[in-house]
Structure formats: structure tokens, C-alpha cells
């Protein structure tokens, strides 16, 4: 997938932003009717609507749209529904199972089960089936590429990848699950039909240890290490066009950047592990101001350089690009 369409980049050479201007249609009455219908559909399988305007709704919406990149401008949230943990004895057992396995992996990994939030896109029927009965190895295997055999989910910052694997229903609405996932200790799985951990040391698979774009949960663990929490229903008319362009770009050789670069989300993630919390918060604040168009790109870069220091930034960016060259 072309990173340039999804994430801001910080480069040793500052370029102007590329903004895709998609026409956006909003029809609140239609969305309200669709939302009411979805409420009925999801209520039957033990879900409850998250009230629009609530903190829970806003946080979930923000997380989803943030990971949609430029496509977020043309994306409208129709409904957010939350799974009721006490809906049935079976559901309660699944909650308990997830807790037990979380504790087991925590102990195995020395105190950290490495639980992440991740996205899974599918058709409405598939999403409903997962909420009702859990993941099916038969259904998920049909969606595999070559990064191992199991359920593939996408990191919370990459909801666009989950959205691209969703399927629009008869109303043009797509659905994506936000799940809690026990990652434990992951191993890199490359171009493989691997379907289980290579040893007892590992709990899951990833396509890249430092910057994973995929989490692979082996079939043996799909209903113990994944717990769906929310279903986000959305419309994104330009998603098909975005997907078509991605497919076209995949056939073209990518031109490498003329200077070392790193995406801002990746940079922030790395710096948060190095800098004091106060400085990390300042960088996050600057990035949010940039995304809200309160400051220019050049101002953002200058502020990040001032906070982190050129020496540290240079070391981080060069380190990441050296890793890319070797992979």
C-alpha cells in the first residue's frame, strides 16, 4: 500500500502536502434510517448502539478516522455498536476465556501480554457471524495473502487497511470490527503458509517486528486471543477508487525518496520510547495542530526539530532507512 496516500511524512527535504479533494455527500436523514436499521440488526446479536456525541463514540470515531488518512475526508460514520459482554452465557464464557488467556500470556511473557487494539474488515454477514459465533478458520483462510495462515488484523493506526478488506452492503455501508488482540511475543512471518508458531516462544505473527502492518493470529488461537468490542459502520464512496489506484500503483515500481524519510506516526511512536513524556506530549500536540490545519507543515517540522533535536532525529531516520534497505 502506498504510504504517501495515508500518512504524513517527515523528510530531510520538506515538500508541499498533496491533498486529494474528493467530493463529499452527506445525507443525515438517510444515515439516520440506515443507522436505525443497523441498530435492529446488531441488537439481535447482542450489541448496543454507542450514543453519538458521547466520549466513547467520539474516541472510537477519532481512532477510526485517524487511521483512514486522506480517505477520512470522504468517510462518514453511520453507526457504532458495542458488544454486550453479558448478552448470553456463551458471550460471558468468551469474555472469561480472553481474560484467562491474557493472564496466561502475561505470565509467559514476563508480565506483559502485549494486548493491542486492531481492525478486521468484512461483509456485514461475516461481521455478524463473528460477533455471534466467533471467527471461522474456513472463512478467514479464503482472505489470506502469503503472511501465514490465520486471522489477519490491522494495527489501530491503519484502519484504512481494514476498511479496504470490508465489503459494502446493499446500502453502500461497510462494516469493520475493532478488537482487542493478545499479541504476546510475535515472530516475523514472510511469504509463508505457516499456520502455527514456529516454537513455543512465540504467540502470534507479524509482517514486520518494528512497524507491523499485519497481526497474524493462528487458527488455534482465533477465538481465545481475539475479542471483538465494536462494529463501526461507515460510508466511504472514494474507497473503491482508492483501492483501484492502490492496485494500479502496485504494478508500478515505486520511486524511492530522494532523501531519508519517516512517517510522522512512526516517528512519534519511536520518540515516545526515547524522549521524556512531556516532550513526547508536545510533539503529539504539534502533530494534532498540523492535522487540524492550525499550523503549516514547515512549522510542524521546525517544532519537532526544536523539541527532539536534529541529532536524535537524524539518528532515528537513518536507522529506519537502514532497516528498510536490509529488508
Automatic annotation (TrEMBL):
Localization terms from the record: Nucleus
Gene3D superfamilies, per the entry: 3.90.228.10
KW Nucleus (keyword) present: yes
Pfam families to which the protein is assigned, alphabetical: RST
Alphabetized PANTHER family for the sequence: INACTIVE POLY [ADP-RIBOSE] POLYMERASE SRO2-RELATED, INACTIVE POLY [ADP-RIBOSE] POLYMERASE SRO4-RELATED
InterPro entries (alphabetical): Poly(ADP-ribose)pol_cat_dom (IPR012317), RCD1/SRO1-5 (IPR044964), RST (IPR022003)
One cellular-component annotation, GO: nucleus
Membrane-spanning ranges: none
SUPFAM superfamilies documented for this protein: ADP-ribosylation
Keywords of this entry: Developmental protein, Nucleus, Stress response
Name of this chain's protein: Inactive poly [ADP-ribose] polymerase SRO2
RST domain segment(s): 255-326
Keyword rRNA processing: no
Main location per the UniProt record: nucleus
Alphabetized GO MF terms: NAD+ poly-ADP-ribosyltransferase activity
Highest taxon, organism lineage: Eukaryota
Domain PARP catalytic residue range list: 36-255
